[in-house]
Design brief:
The complex is a heterotrimer of chains A (about 350), B (about 500) and C (about 240).
Chain A: E1 8-17, E2 23-24, H1 26-33, E3 44-49, E4 59-65, H2 68-81, E5 83-89, E6 103-110, H3 121-135, E7 139-143, E8 148-153, H4 157-163, E9 170-171, E10 173-181, E11 194-196, E12 199-205, H5 210-218, H6 230-243, H7 248-255, H8 260-263, H9 268-281, E13 290-296, E14 299-304, E15 313-317, E16 320-324, H10 327-331, E17 339-341, E18 349-352
Helix pairs in contact in A: 1-4, 5-6, 7-9
Chain B: E1 9-13, H1 23-27, E2 33-36, E3 38-41, H2 51-55, E4 61-65, H3 78-90, E5 95-96, E6 111-113, E7 134-136, E8 159-161, E9 165-167, H4 177-190, E10 194-195, E11 212-216, H5 225-229, E12 233-237, E13 248-250, H6 257-263, E14 271-273, H7 283-296, E15 303-308, H8 313-322, E16 327-331, E17 340-341, H9 342-347, H10 352-365, E18 373-377, H11 383-392, E19 396-399, H12 401-406, H13 429-432, H14 437-461, E20 477-479, H15 484-490, E21 493-494
Chain C: E1 2-4, H1 10-22, E2 27-34, E3 48-54, E4 64-70, E5 84-89, E6 105-108, E7 129-132, E8 145-151, E9 171-177, E10 189-192, H2 196-213, H3 217-221, E11 225-230
Parallel strand pairs in C: 1-2, 2-3, 3-4, 4-5, 5-6, 6-7, 7-8, 8-9
Antiparallel strand pairs in C: 9-11, 10-11
The chains are: A alpha+beta (about 350), B alpha/beta (about 500), C alpha/beta (about 240).
């Protein structure tokens, strides 16, 4: 069932308070709704950071189950691999435009210490996420990070947002996605954001280098079976930043690398680094049109492809950083802005949470 | 013994057109045309090298296959009957040249490339950047940065290619010095590499050394520490696609003054390459030789190991990578040669497409694909083959026969005679002179840069602008007319299946 | 006619405008515009539309006559395949401005994005013009086949224009205020100095530009310009064999 990949077009929006101020979910819904015509009602979703401060040390798994059997099987599995501190249904309310939701449940999990003799905690959790997604029939991990969560489904993003009652959540980073897939899989897991641990990606465009990005990631134990090119972005960041310990700006040099002609003109040390990165990480280059907003616990990154085939507007006001496919989607929630700009091709805008946030 | 072999070709001279300029007589290096009052062909000696027809100013010469029919026989083909006659008359092993011409499946021709429509945009290859630059050499598993974000990993030596097409190993001896010069000059201009083959490096091409792969084969001809260091890459030749498991034999009559100097053997002696390297009887011995070369070159040159594509190629390649090779060069069963027993050329080895797919996949499964670059050859005929090879996982392709065709070769398969009328596979000074290195280098540059443009067209239609986004991206290939087994080995889906 | 576009879908907004134009309305003022697409799309009449707020993509696409004034930034795809008319942006504009534009004028006070004037062309008396007061991204004038583009760089940023300027250019002319490192130019363009005729030509457009946006014409003209023209009308003539 998960074999066929679905191309799609899209709208993306993201906002972040550098001071770590919490903002309720109605704001991001208004922004993404402004770009209604960029999606076709077949997928919408949100990622929110800082929403579970009381359980911020626990992995919050947002799960989608096709049926009760899948839920039972997953919970049996959880018992073996985690300490389950709490589980509950994800609150929703009936919303026009949203139909046939799967069973939506969240779990607050801790990793038993005896499991970590030969593996780091996050590698351990990553393996479990991969295992559930590819082996437990009818179960899908929508998100698996700490103090964050993904809320997504089939429908227009504004309908999905109201369905999940996002106005009841307060987050210091919100990202959102409206999807325009090219057929009707009706699969809730296929909506953005795609996540792994605390990484989340909303993505506009299509990765033409998917084939080799996938084969490269498979060398490192990632399983790519989610019928979308977007998951490669989340996993590539996970591989490079978390596992290979790349500074974010160096990871960007691989994923949206400068052209050789520009590398050749760089000063010696930068040239050495950029050359080595392309030589070693050429298979990670994200080629083809994209603009993405990547969320993680400490910030938000906006990036578009190296010849800028997808749009992205960025704006600032006070401690707020905004990114969206269209300026109007930012103006819809922040009419007055200190600074508005379009980042250059292949140039990341890196937003970092300055304050210690709970 | 009187030969019963019929002529292969008929040379027909139109005497009404012929002005008796005798250019054909002078040009025929196989003595198939004489002048007795008029141009008189001896068709029995014709090899269809086209030299006479090409240079006839009156278009008066037509060469046709001898239309001598045989009684129908699907099993006993005319070629088999002729070979039996040859051996009955001589008692010899049938020798031949160039690559395997038999109608085995050509997998390149059963693979089709993807293109973008709507969901991804194609990219204009003429107006927008389209990068073909490729680096050959071992890559680490990851790069490490220190706390100041400075790069602390030192990379193994990397050799830059401006286009992922490299000239194949062809020794001075098998081909002429002028051919070597043309390849070296073209490699330099194109930003790619030529390969000395196993016959050493003549001093005339030494100025191009930074664009030359030097080979170390079982005969060790001309191999000195200077030779190893005066290079871009050092290649250990284990085998060759046209004759896996077989050595070489350059007859003494070809070993003149210059070849003697280059190979460092006396004039007139046979240059024998043993079948194996007698210091490599097992994989750990290969590692020993690799590191002997790395020590001799102070770890400044990537070391390549060239093997023929044989049944167990994936495991062999994995062993080679683990033995420390920076590059694995795989030569498919259609690869060319200056001379090989026909039984070996036509019946041993496996297709490069399958070998490449198996090797790339195996190295990925073992997590060591990055540790070596993969070069493939063995009948890369056109830029489409290059694009497909790279999509299957190759870093770059090597071309031998295609390069020789560009400079005049008509693939008459008579390289071993030393009579090459085009001045390529010969050491006879009067024939070698026919090949102008400058003109030949121009032709090589034209061919390879045309292929470069064509590969850029393919990348553009695939919506990608760097060759590394095609490399190993088998998702962009589909099979047509292949069975499931072949599709599985190639790691591609059948045409008609979406993503 | 004043229209409050708040929360209005583009279809409704554009329908109101089309209907009013049909009944003779000549002037529109749109308030609270928030990303509505296709404003002015395909209109043939000599009307004036003033936009307060951020108009959506494809502003003035296929437009053939109207004058549009935007009192904010514009988005992507402005003047797509436009035939005649005028678009004045009192802010910056996004990517792919004037794609395939065949006539009319676009004046941008601030910056313009990537691929501005891509495949702009001229036909007989129709000569399209784009003037931007700030900087522009890569592929400025890509495949340009005709028309005039002027880039001023008045906001003092270091790099006035991105890479691959005029790549594939085979017609028209680009004027850029200041010098350009040849590294940024496409392979198909030639760099020239301006002659008197050029100065007269850009002077007339820049006069208008300064009037619209309040720049000082003398200051704009105080720096020298670089003129870019195609090397050939058939840049790829030698690329193919038959």
């Amino acid at each position: 069932m998960k074999s066929e990949r679905i191309p799609s077009g899209c709208a993306i929006s993201g906002l972040m308070s550098e001071e770590g101020r919490r903002i309720d979910g109605s704001v991001i819904i208004r922004s993404i709704a402004c770009m209604h015509d960029r999606s076709n009602g077949l997928g919408g979703g949100f990622a929110a950071y800082g929403i579970y401060p009381k359980r911020k040390e626990q992995y919050a798994f947002h799960m989608m189950f096709d049926n009760v059997e899948a839920k039972v099987a997953t919970e049996e599995f959880f018992k073996d691999v985690f300490n389950v501190d709490k589980d509950e249904p994800i609150p929703t309310h009936r919303e026009n435009g949203v139909s046939n939701p799967p069973l939506l449940w969240r779990y607050f999990l801790e990793v038993p210490e005896n499991k970590l003799e030969f593996i780091t905690e996050r590698d351990y959790v990553m393996k479990i996420v991969m295992k559930i997604n590819s082996e437990v029939e009818g179960a899908f991990v929508a998100s698996s990070g700490k103090n964050m969560g993904a809320f997504k489904g089939v429908g227009y993003p504004e309908d999905i947002g109201r369905f999940y009652k996002l106005e009841d959540y307060n987050a210091y980073i919100w990202t959102a996605h409206g999807r325009f897939p090219t057929n009707t899989p009706g699969w809730w897991g296929g909506a953005h954001p795609f996540t792994l641990l605390d990484w989340s990606v909303v993505h506009n465009g299509e990765i033409s280098s998917y084939g080799i990005n996938k084969r490269y990631l498979e060398m490192f134990g990632y399983r790519l079976e989610l019928r979308t090119d977007t998951e490669v972005i989340a996993y590539l960041f996970d591989l490079m930043v978390r596992r290979h310990k790349f500074p974010i700006d160096k990871a960007i040099l691989a994923l949206a690398s400068p052209f050789w002609k520009d590398i050749d003109r760089m000063e010696t040390e930068r040239k050495r680094i950029a050359t080595a990165i392309r030589q070693v990480y050429g298979s990670t280059l994200l080629n083809g049109p994209f603009s993405i907003i990547l969320g993680h616990n400490n910030g938000m990154i906006g990036l578009n492809d190296r010849i800028k085939l997808r749009p992205m507007t960025v704006a600032r006001n006070d401690d707020m950083l905004y990114m969206a496919s269209e300026e109007s989607a930012i103006r819809a929630i922040a009419p007055d802005l200190e600074e508005v700009w379009s980042p250059r091709a292949g140039t990341a805008v890196i937003g970092t949470i300055k304050a210690e946030v709970e | 013994m009187e030969s019963q072999l019929p002529a292969e070709f008929n040379v027909n001279v139109n005497h009404e057109k012929c002005r008796k300029c005798r250019r054909c007589v002078i040009n025929c290096s196989f003595s198939a045309i004489e002048f007795k009052d008029k141009v008189t062909p001896n068709s029995r000696l014709c090899v269809a090298c086209h030299r006479c027809a090409t240079f006839c100013p009156e278009n008066a010469i037509v060469i046709t296959e001898n239309p001598l029919d045989y009684k129908d026989g699907y099993n006993w083909t005319p070629e088999i009957r002729k070979n039996i006659l040859k051996q009955a008359e001589s008692g010899g092993i049938i020798l031949t040249g160039m690559g395997n011409p038999k109608p085995y499946p050509i997998y390149w021709d059963h693979m089709l490339i993807d293109a973008c429509q709507v969901t991804n945009p194609s990219i204009d290859p003429l107006r927008e950047p389209m990068e073909l630059r490729t680096y050959l050499g071992s890559k680490p598993d990851s790069l490490k940065f220190d706390a100041d974000a400075d790069l602390t990993t030192e990379l193994a030596p990397q050799v830059k290619l401006d286009i992922p097409v490299v000239f194949a190993a062809m020794s001075y001896g098998a081909i002429s010095l002028n051919a070597h010069k043309a390849l070296a000059m073209a490699a330099k201009r194109l930003g790619t590499l030529m390969n000395t083959g196993e016959g050493g490096m003549h001093e005339d091409i030494a100025p191009y050394a930074d664009r030359i792969i030097v080979q170390v084969a079982s005969g060790r001809f001309g191999v000195t520490s200077k030779y190893l260091n005066n290079s871009a890459i050092v290649e250990i030749k284990i085998g060759q696609g046209a004759k896996p498991g077989i050595g070489g034999h350059l007859p003494g009559e070809k070993v003149g003054e210059e070849i003697s100097k280059t190979r460092m053997i006396p004039v007139g002696t046979d240059a024998l390459s043993p079948a194996p390297h007698h210091d490599i009887y097992s994989i750990e011995d290969l590692s020993q030789l690799i590191y002997a070369i790395k020590e001799a070159t102070d770890y400044r040159k990537p070391v390549s190991v060239k093997i023929a594509a044989v049944h167990n190629v994936a495991a062999i390649a994995s062993g080679i990578v683990r033995a420390g090779a920076d590059i694995v060069m795989i030569d498919g069963f259609r690869g060319g040669t200056g001379a090989a027993p026909m039984i070996i050329r036509d019946h041993v080895g496996i297709p490069i497409e399958l070998a490449l797919a198996a090797v790339d996949e195996r190295l990925r499964q073992e997590g060591i694909r990055n540790r070596a670059s993969i070069l493939v050859g063995g009948s890369i005929r056109q830029s489409a083959d290059v694009a497909k090879a790279i999509a299957l996982g190759a870093d770059a392709c090597v071309i031998g026969t295609a390069a020789l065709i560009a400079i005049g070769c008509r693939v008459c398969q008579k390289c071993y005679t030393g009579n090459c009328a085009w001045g390529i596979a010969t050491q006879k000074p009067e024939l070698v002179r026919r090949l102008n290195p400058e003109v030949a280098a121009d032709r090589l540059c034209n061919l390879v840069s045309a292929w470069g443009h064509e590969i850029q067209e393919v990348l553009g239609s695939l919506g990608i602008n760097a060759i590394e986004s095609l490399r190993g991206s088998r998702e962009r290939l589909r099979g047509v007319g292949l069975n499931q087994e072949a599709l599985d080995i190639l790691g591609i889906k059948h045409a008609g299946i979406g993503q | 006619m004043k229209i409050d576009a708040k929360d209005m879908h583009y279809r409704q907004l554009n329908r109101i405008i089309r209907d009013a134009v049909a009944s003779g309305e000549k002037e529109f003022e749109l308030d609270n515009v928030q990303g509505q697409r296709y404003i002015g799309d395909g209109l043939n009449e000599s009307i004036k539309i003033t936009i307060n707020g951020t108009p959506g993509n494809d502003l003035g696409a296929f437009m053939n006559g109207p004058r549009i004034i935007v009192n904010a930034n514009g988005q992507d795809g402005i003047a797509n395949t436009m035939n005649a008319g005028e678009i004045i942006i009192h802010g910056s504009a996004g990517d792919i401005i004037g794609y395939g534009m065949r006539g009319g004028r676009v004046y941008i006070k601030g910056d313009a994005g990537y691929r501005v004037g891509i495949h702009m062309k001229e036909y007989k008396k129709q000569v399209p013009v784009i003037v931007a007061g700030g900087t522009a991204g890569d592929f400025f004038g890509e495949y340009m086949a005709g028309g005039i583009m002027i880039l001023l760089g008045m906001n003092g940023k270091d790099q006035i224009v991105g890479d691959y300027v005029g790549t594939g250019m085979h017609g028209g002319v680009i004027y850029i205020r200041g010098k350009i490192d040849p590294y940024h130019l496409g392979k198909e363009v030639n760099c020239l100095e301006l002659n008197e005729e050029d100065m007269k030509l850009i002077g007339s457009y820049l006069k208008e530009f300064c009037e619209y946006f309040g720049f000082d014409l003398n200051e704009v003209m105080s720096r020298s310009f670089t003129k870019l023209v195609p090397l050939s009308h058939r840049p790829y003539g030698n690329m193919y064999v038959y």
